[in-house]
Structure formats: C-alpha cells, structure tokens
From TrEMBL:
<dbReference type="InterPro" id="IPR011333">
    <property type="entry name" value="SKP1/BTB/POZ_sf"/>
</dbReference>
<dbReference type="InterPro" id="IPR051082">
    <property type="entry name" value="Pentapeptide-BTB/POZ_domain"/>
</dbReference>
<protein>
    <submittedName>
        <fullName>BTB/POZ domain-containing protein KCTD9</fullName>
    </submittedName>
</protein>
<dbReference type="Pfam" id="PF02214">
    <property type="entry name" value="BTB_2"/>
</dbReference>
<dbReference type="GO" id="GO:0051260">
    <property type="term" value="P:protein homooligomerization"/>
</dbReference>
<dbReference type="InterPro" id="IPR001646">
    <property type="entry name" value="5peptide_repeat"/>
</dbReference>
<dbReference type="InterPro" id="IPR000210">
    <property type="entry name" value="BTB/POZ_dom"/>
</dbReference>
<dbReference type="InterPro" id="IPR003131">
    <property type="entry name" value="T1-type_BTB"/>
</dbReference>
<feature type="domain" description="BTB">
    <location>
        <begin position="47"/>
        <end position="151"/>
    </location>
</feature>
<dbReference type="Pfam" id="PF00805">
    <property type="entry name" value="Pentapeptide"/>
</dbReference>
Length: 348
C-alpha cells in the first residue's frame, strides 16, 4: 500500500483544514471572480506632512489640506478615503510636487486661514493658474474677481507726465496724436508741446498746463476744471462746450496772427481767471463767464453774444468792436475800460 504525507491546508476565509487530495470546487472559477484586497492609504487628519513644491519644502497638517477644499487635488491625495495616491517622496520624506513654490505660498496660506493674501511682488495671474491646477474652486473665483477689479482700476488710472512724454516721443510729427477721452486728471504737463493734438472728451481736471503749447488743439467738451493753464498758448483751439470752471488762464494767448478765431462757444469759464490774456477775436458766444476775472484782457473783436457775464470783472479790458449783443452784464465790473462800451454792443 502506498503511503502519503498528508499536508493540511488552512482556508483563509473559513479557517478549516482542507485535504489537497480533494478537488477544490473554486479552482475552476476564472481569476476575474477573485477579489484582491488593496490596503487603503489612510492619513490621520492631525498628522503633519511635508510638501516639496518646486524644490521648496512646506510643512503643514492633513487637516489644512482637506478641510477647506475637500474636492481639491491636495485633499484627495491625503484624505482618509485615499481617493488619489500621493506623489513620490524625496529623501526626507516630503511629497514631491512639480509646481512653482513662488505661487504656492499664497495658496497654502489660504488653506490655513481662509484669507487671500498675496504680496505685491507676486502675480495674481500666476497664483490663479496654480489654484486651477490644484482644483481650488473657491480660490479661483476670488482671484478672477480681484484680477478683474485690478484691471478696471488700471484702466481708469490717470496717465502721468512720463506716459504722455513717452507717447509724444514715440509718435512721428506727421502722425496725428489722439488723447481723446483719456484720463489725464492732475497730470503735470507744463511746458510741453501739444500742438494739433486731439483732447476731445479728455479728463484734464487740475492738470498743470502752464506755459504749454496747445495751438490748434481740439479741446471740445474737455474737462479742464480748476486746471492751471497760466501763460499757455491757446491759438485757434477748438474748445466748444469745454469745462474750464475755476481754471487759471492768466496771461494766455488766444490770438492767431493768420486771423483764425479761437472757438470757445458755450464754454464754461465760471469763476475762471483770464486776467491779462490776449483774447482778440475769440468766439465766446453763449459762454458762462459768471464771476470770471477778465481784468485787463484784450477782447478786441471778440464774440460775447449771449454770454453770461454776471459779476464778471472786465475792468481795464479792451472791448473795441466786441459783440456783446444779448450778453448778461448784470453787476459786471466795467471800470477803466480802454475803449468806451457802446450801447449797441450790449442790449441786455
């Protein structure tokens, strides 16, 4: 009789011993029906870990990575469910992430305290790209909104003297320069040559244009309120309905030797100072000159028909052949006139 060394095999599921001579009914089943258990990658939320981002090591807790944005890539890498396997580790055990450390620092700080704080030397666009990579949706929306606001504020920011000089230098003298609708509020533009430039609808409030050359410029509906244009050259400018309220135009020259009229029809010069200016033949039809100082002005052949000259100081001015028909001269100062004012010139 043959002898056998009987070896019992312990079943892992039932714990029962099996005889190897007995055919196992599960042996013929395909391998695909067998379940292979994979150990879960679990990280306790209080555990400290190190992240090597682009060569720079950051130390934080699992809780920081998973609590604020549970659906982000970082949260899925280190969550209890282990939805995503972490990356490789360096020799110190820090998890390697091949991204920019420069832009990652604001992101990890956001995950720590929930506030978006970005240093001025860091590009918001760069942080936005990293936030998109990590899947931080709430941070992405905040960054996009802030970038939009910053762009809008830059669009509305006034140009500086440097910006204007750069534009003047880079533009050929035969090319038309347009600053139409541009914000130049408060800019220091004194002594610059702006001949033939279009400033239509531009905002030039409180600009310093003293001694500037604005000959043949278009100032139509330009806002020059409280601007300083002292001793500026304003020969043959087109200033239809411009706002020059409270502006300083002392000693300006408006007269064109060729005979062309400076057109300031409908201009607002309320409270402006035009003392000692040469305004010969200027068109100031229906202009608002209330409380304006036009002392010692040359207004020969000027058109002031329908202008509001209430409480305007015209003392010492030359109004020879000026057209004042329909002008409001209520309480206007008309003493020491160079030439007598005829009643035919001013009916109202």
């Amino acid at each position: 009789m043959d002898t056998y060394n009987i070896v019992s095999i312990i079943d892992n599921e039932t714990g029962a011993a099996t005889d190897p001579r007995v055919k196992n009914p599960m042996a013929d089943k395909p391998c695909s029906s067998l379940k292979v258990a994979v150990p879960e990658q679990k990280f306790p939320s209080s555990k400290w870990i190190k992240l090597n981002v682009g060569g720079k090591v950051f130390q934080t807790t699992i809780w920081t990575l998973v609590s604020k944005e549970p659906d982000s890539m970082l949260a899925r890498m280190f969550s209890q469910e282990g939805a995503m396997m972490p990356s490789d580790q360096d020799e110190t055990g820090a998890y390697l992430i091949d991204r920019s450390a420069h832009y990652f620092e604001p992101i990890i700080n956001y995950l720590r305290h929930g506030q978006l704080i970005v240093d001025p030397n860091i590009s918001l666009e760069g942080v936005l790209e990293e936030a998109k990579f990590y899947g931080l949706e709430s941070l992405v929306s905040q960054l996009e909104e802030q970038i939009m606001q910053n762009n809008q504020s830059l669009d509305n920011q006034p140009l500086t003297r440097r910006d204007v000089i750069k534009a003047l230098i880079q533009t050929s003298h035969i090319t038309e320069i347009r600053f139409q609708g541009v914000n130049l509020a408060g800019a220091d533009l004194r002594k610059l040559d702006f001949r033939n430039i279009n400033f239509k609808y531009a905002c030039m409030q409180r600009c310093n244009l003293s001694h500037a050359n604005l000959t043949y410029c278009c100032l139509e509906r330009t806002d020059l309120a409280y601007a300083n244009l002292e001793c500026a050259q304003l020969i043959s400018v087109k200033g239809l309905c411009a706002n020059m309220e409270g502006a300083n135009l002392r000693g300006c020259n408006f007269e064109d030797p060729s005979g062309l009229r400076t057109n300031l029809e409908g201009v607002n010069l309320k409270g402006a100072c035009l003392e000692s200016s040469n305004m010969a033949a200027v068109n100031l039809r229906v202009a608002n000159l209330k409380n304006a100082n036009m002392k010692n002005c040359n207004l020969r052949s000027a058109v002031l028909a329908g202008a509001d000259l209430e409480r305007c100081n015209l003392s010492g001015s030359d109004l020879q052949e000026a057209n004042l028909r329909g002008a409001n001269l209520k309480d206007a100062e008309l003493t020491l006139m160079v030439t007598p004012l005829h009643m035919a010139q001013a009916i109202r």
